[in-house]
Predict the 3D structure of the following.
Amino acid sequence: MKVVCIGSGNVATHFSQALNASGHSIVQIWSKGLENAEVLGNSLQAPAINDLKQLDQNADLYLIAVRDDAIASVAEHLKDVHGLVLHTSGATELTVLSTLKRSGVLYPLQTFSKTKALDFNLVPLCIEASTPADLSIVRDLATQLSSKVYEVDSKQRKILHLAAVFACNFTNHLYHISSSILEENQLDFAMLQPLIQETMEKIHTETPFNAQTGPAVRNDQATLDAHINLLKSSPEFKEIYINLSDSIKKTHK
Amino acid sequence: MKVVCIGSGNVATHFSQALNASGHSIVQIWSKGLENAEVLGNSLQAPAINDLKQLDQNADLYLIAVRDDAIASVAEHLKDVHGLVLHTSGATELTVLSTLKRSGVLYPLQTFSKTKALDFNLVPLCIEASTPADLSIVRDLATQLSSKVYEVDSKQRKILHLAAVFACNFTNHLYHISSSILEENQLDFAMLQPLIQETMEKIHTETPFNAQTGPAVRNDQATLDAHINLLKSSPEFKEIYINLSDSIKKTHK
C-alpha cells in the first residue's frame, strides 16, 4: 500500500518504520515542523511536507499519529480521499473521522521512544473500522505488523488507555520519584533494578492483588510513619505516599 | 555455619533455602505458629520451635526475619549467645541489636513470595555490622549467597527501603488498579503485559524522567479530564489519578 504518514513523533516513527519493513511504501510524511518530517522522511526515503494542503490525495492509507486534539483538523484535509484513514489514538473515538469516506483506528497499546528500538511484532494493536470491509483491511494490515491484534470498540479502547496510564505512565513516574529519593542521598538507582524486574515478573504468575508486599499491606504503621517523616521536605511525594498507602490498606482490609 | 532461622515468612524462607544451598546447616527454625515453622523446617530437615526460650544458644549465626516491631523482643532472647545475630529489615537500625555481643544486618533489596522461585544470586544484599571483624564475616556470607553485595549504613538502608516502596509496592498497586479497571470492563489484563514489560525495560537505557510519556507530561488536559470522568465511580482511584498526574506535570513543567 501507498501510505501517507501524518505526524513525526514516537508513534509515527515506529509505525512508519514497521510499515516500511512490511513492504509498504511511505509516500509522504507530514509534520508541523518541516525539520522533524525531514528526519523521518530521509530515513524512509519519503518526501517531507509541513502543509496539510499538500497531502497526497491518492494514497491507499493515511495514518494519523498526531496529538489527540489535532486529529479533527487533520481530518478536514482528507474529506475527498478514497484511501482508508486511520487514527492511532487510545483516547479518541472512531467518530472523530465520521466525515470521511473510509475510517478506522489502529491503536498501539505500547510506550514508544524514538531512540529505543523494540520488536513491533509484540506490540498489541487494537483495531476498529467504520465498515466490515475496512475492518478486514485493518485486520490484515495489523496482522502483518504484529502477532497481537485485538478488535476493540471506542469505549473499550478508552478504558484500555486509562488502564495503560496507571500501568505505564504512573509506574514510570514512581520510578522517577524512587530515583530522585536515591539521588538526593547519593545512592545508585541501579541497585533497585532487580527489585523492579521481579515486581514486574511476579504478575506473570500471580494477580497484582496477591503479589502485594510492603508496609501498607502488612499494616506496619511504625514503618509508614517513619517513611512519611523521611518525606517531610517533599510534600508532593509525601502526599503520593499517603494516598497510595491508604489505597493499599483499603484494598486489602 | 550452624544457622538458627527466626521467622518463617517470605524472607526467612528464601534466605534459609539459599543458606542451605550454600552448604550451611539450618539447625533450628522458630515461628510464632509452630505449623509454619514445621513446613519450612521439614523442607530443610531442621527442627521447628515456637518458643523463643528454646532457641539454640550455640549456633554460629542467628538470622532474624520477623516483623520489624518484633525484632527487639526476639533480641531479648539472644543476649547471651556468642554467635553473630543479623536482622534482615530495611527500615530498622542496626542499634536495635545493640545489647547483643555481636550484631549486623543482611537486608535483601527484593520482593519475595513463598510460591515464586527466584535466582538468589541476583538479589542485592545490603550489609552492615557493629565491628569490622563481623562486617567481614557478613561480607563473606553475603558474597556466597549473591553477586550483588552493598555496604550500606542504617540511614542509607532506610532510604533504600523507602525508594523500594515507591518502585515496587506502589508500582504493584498501580498494576492492581489497572487490572481492576480492565476487569470491570471485561478486558484482559494480559493485554497490558507488553506495555508493562517495555515500561520497565526503558529505564535500563533512559532515566525515568526522560522515559515519561502519557497525557500528563504532554499537558493533554482533554484526555486527563476524560479519564477523570471515567473514574467518577471510584473516588479513590480518581484521587490517585489526579495526584500522580499533577506530580508528573510539576516534575516536567
In short: Chain B has a mean pLDDT of 95. The CA atoms of residues 132 and 138 of chain B lie 10 Å apart. Chain B has two domains: 2-152, 158-251.
